[in-house]
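Aim 2 progress update. The chain analyzed this quarter is reproduced below.
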Amino acid sequence: MISRLLVANRGEIARRVFRTCRERGISTVAVYSDADARALHTREADIAVRLPGVTAADTYLRADLIVEAALAAGADAVHPGYGFLSENAAFAQAVIDAGLTWVGPSPDAIDAMGSKIASKKLMAAAGVPVLPELDPATVTEADLPVLVKASAGGGGRGMRVVHTLDDLPDQVEAARAEAAAAFGDPTVFCEPYLATGRHIEVQVMADTHGTIWALGERECSIQRRHQKVVEEAPSPMVDPAMRDRLHAAATAAAAAIAYRGAGTVEFLAGDDGSFHFLETNTRLQVEHPVTELVTGLDLVALQLDIAEGAPLPPTPPATHGHAIEVRLYAEDPAHTWRPQTGPLHTFTLPTTTEFGAPAPAPAGRGGHSAVVVRVDSGFAGGDTVTPHYDPMLAKVIVWAPTRERAARALAAALAQARIHGLVTNRDLLVNVLRHPAFLAGRINTAFFAQHGLDMLARPLADEDAQRLSACAAALAASAAERANATVVTGLPGGWRNVTSAPQSRAYQAPAGRIDVGYRRTRDGVQIEGEPELVVGEVTATRVELGRGNVRHAFTVAAYPDVVCVDSVLGPVSLRPVERFPEAEVQVASGSLLAPLPGAVIRVAVAEGDQVSAGQPLLWLEAMKMQHEITAPTDGTVTHLPAAVGHQVEVGAVLAVVTPADPEAQP
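Predicted structure tokens:
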């Protein structure tokens, strides 16, 4: 029996495993890097063991340090979570060799699925349909388009879509570099690229007594950079006949490698119902909560049962209702999905259960119509998002009796969330969940390209809502100043003995700069340029504004660098514009500045090189992704301070390109 469990991971998955352990009376051990010293998972564990360093390579990817931590803390079992070392057969073997219980499949099963090239051959032999594997050196025009993929690992890293043979060598080289950096293995291969395929996967659970469960399917077709963004169960495209075929293929895949524990068999499906094997993830998936909510199961509890040798019942439970999960990222979709770092001042969602226990058992639900909203997160208000790890803030999951109700409830929960301090993909997620094509189930892996990322990433608050929010921010700031005043405290904000120019404040909003002028009159506060706008109650945190008989309430939260205004019109983040800004540090014309903190992992040019507009110059790695820095114009690289291995901060000069035509300087 497991009595003390170490989770070889961080963030929300560590907290998720801890929740089940607490319910089962198992004490918990966390490992943490120096960057995670005050992280939630570190604070919540019964015992926490430091892994010196901040990068994943120095901490969460050090199998030797994690095994040492487990032994030092008196743990008798290790759960790998997902990512990091979760699919590392050598780590699993090291845990077992140390006399600890490994909560996962056998090292042999992990090893069998660790190479996508080898695993596809194994699956084909087991009768599972697979896409043909192509050697990058032999790809022809007839094979295009192709997808270059890393043989090891996943998560979208080491993947490139190639449409022309001329692009293939550079894309293969880039994929190899990314795969080597992420997984320590530069091996890549190609396969036919299905631009509008659908990503369907089957959750499997297998015990040591020969029972294999196929727990329905999940659809994960809406993706960015080959990484999942929206996941749901069941898939809107899968009918009973296709489900039977998917279950049979997933069961055959698990049986072929004598699988044990929780795993996921992933397929790429066509609109005609055909599907092909992609990979088997030999671990718990990020999106496992949707399966928990439609089955009523606790998959982590089942993992622990199987690790202790317990048998599964002969048949799995039926699925009921519909569950949808979205991944809330600290990133800016409108600007090439750029990851965001910094303080997360406030982070709350309405009416949620954190790491909620699975929904009521399906048998007891019947016509049950209550909606379940669940949040699995590794962050809370007051935390800081660093550049060292994945930018996912949380998973927000909703169960409802129908897909339409689940989508509506999830969109509402996200829209009403208070997320202050960082740009996130929240507005994008809400727009997707409310999109007619999504609601109709017409989704595929090209969803963003088909429906326009610029439209899907647009703010929930339109320009008028942003202006009203700026008005509310200005009035709340005035009220806050009066509340903190130490002289003539009885006077209202904006009071003047003699009529004078209005008070004014300026903010930078998503739609641009907004200037707000306001004055107090005998009839109340008036907003310049808004004669029909009626100002109601005003405090430092709440402002009422109305037009005619329609009144809206705005909640205002001011922080040192941003003012966040929430209302039914949509959330708005405003940057105050200083009246007397400090002089900015000047940089040379043509300078390329780091858009985010990260490490320089590759440089493709040297000083003196002639470059053309759009040509890649160097690559930064941050938050598990590579970011390409390109030349803004034709010209010459006249300065190149960046070098491989350098850690750079936001705004650091990476290179200077002097344009061939001075008038071409952007």
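Residues 208 and 407 are 38 Å apart (CA to CA). The chain has 17 helices and 39 strands. These observations will guide the mutagenesis experiments scheduled for the next reporting period.
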